[in-house]
Write a structure and sequence with these properties.
CATH superfamily: Metal-dependent hydrolases
Helix content: 25-40%
Function: Component of ribonuclease P, a ribonucleoprotein complex that generates mature tRNA molecules by cleaving their 5'-ends. Also a component of the MRP ribonuclease complex, which cleaves pre-rRNA sequences.
Order of helices and strands: EHEHEEHEHEHHEHHHH
Number of helices: 10
Protein name: Ribonuclease P protein subunit p30
Strand content: 15-25%
Strand order of the largest sheet: 1-2-3-4-5-6-7
Main location: nucleus
Largest sheet: 7 strands, parallel
InterPro entries: Pol/histidinol_Pase-like, Ribosomal_uS2_CS, RNase_P_p30
GO cellular component, one term: nucleolar ribonuclease P complex
Length: 267
């Protein structure tokens, strides 16, 4: 049985709204979600990278996933919106607070760097506006070879008809270059009503140009691969977690570390 994931659910400061989103995700059958903290630096003033709030401080008891006997797993993710190369800080200690690290480049040069250089897990494709650049196959293949995945989010298409056109056009453009491989589908939901069930999302993915098989992988196995990549990245950078709850640990791991992560440790 497939394990479904949504690795981009907007972090909401209102606890009631956040609880509603988490409960809806569990009811729809998502076993894992990632609360997304967005960091968008500007040149006008210095900004602090946000600090994730532990989920047990936000929700007393996590809801049980529909059709399963275990509670939903909630991770933390940071997305850096980049309009300049200086906005990404390699090896920044603040990045280590998060389970997943993503960037959203706003130019072709930054997109190329994200694909080929930056030590990240996810590259976000903007969905709310016309792409400011064209996708090229070489950097996309470079990202795929490094285990980095591309993210297409769908909630913007629900909010506005103009954004719906941008979402479909940008997603189709990406699929033509990556052939539907190494793509994850996420909601980027800001409220519970913007969440859709895994099978509805896979149907929507057909509009983006994904095959039926690639669409199912985009909400399951490719998400799992992104989590394994993140675990290996954090371990390889020398961070060792000595205390992690079972709720935070990826499935199939022991004491919060996957076998892949353990093999990546220096001996």
């Amino acid at each position: 049985m497939a394990v479904f994931m949504d690795l981009n659910v907007s972090f909401l400061p209102d606890r009631s709204d956040l609880r509603s989103v988490v409960e809806t995700a569990a009811h729809l059958g998502f076993s894992t979600i990632a609360l997304n903290y967005v960091f968008e630096p500007t040149a006008k003033k210095k900004q602090e990278i946000p600090t994730p709030t532990p989920i047990n401080e936000l929700i007393d008891q996590l809801p049980v996933v529909q059709g399963r006997s275990r509670p939903i797993r909630v991770l933390n993710r940071l997305t850096v919106v980049m309009s300049d190369a200086s906005h990404f800080r390699p090896n920044a200690p603040e990045y280590r607070r998060f389970d997943l690290l993503a960037v959203q480049p706003t130019s072709e040069k930054l997109f190329h760097a994200a694909c080929m250089v930056y030590d990240i897990d996810i590259i976000c494709v903007p969905m709310t506006e016309k792409l400011p650049f064209f996708f090229k196959r070489a950097p996309i293949n470079g990202a795929i070879d490094r285990g980095v995945v591309f993210e297409v989010s769908y909630s913007a298409a629900i909010r506005d008809s103009t954004m719906r056109r941008y979402t479909i056009a940008n997603a189709v453009s990406l699929m033509e270059s990556c052939k539907g491989k190494s793509v994850i589908l996420s909601s980027a939901a800001q409220k519970a009503l913007e969440l859709r069930g895994p099978y509805d999302v896979t149907n929507l993915a057909l509009l983006f140009g994904l095959s039926d098989g690639d669409a199912k992988e985009a909400v399951s196995s490719t998400c799992r691969a992104a989590l394994l990549h993140a675990e290996t990245r954090r371990t390889a950078s020398g961070i060792i977690y000595t205390t992690r709850s079972q709720q935070e640990a990826p499935q199939g791991s022991v004491d919060g570390e996957t076998p892949e992560a353990k093999r990546a440790k220096p001996t």
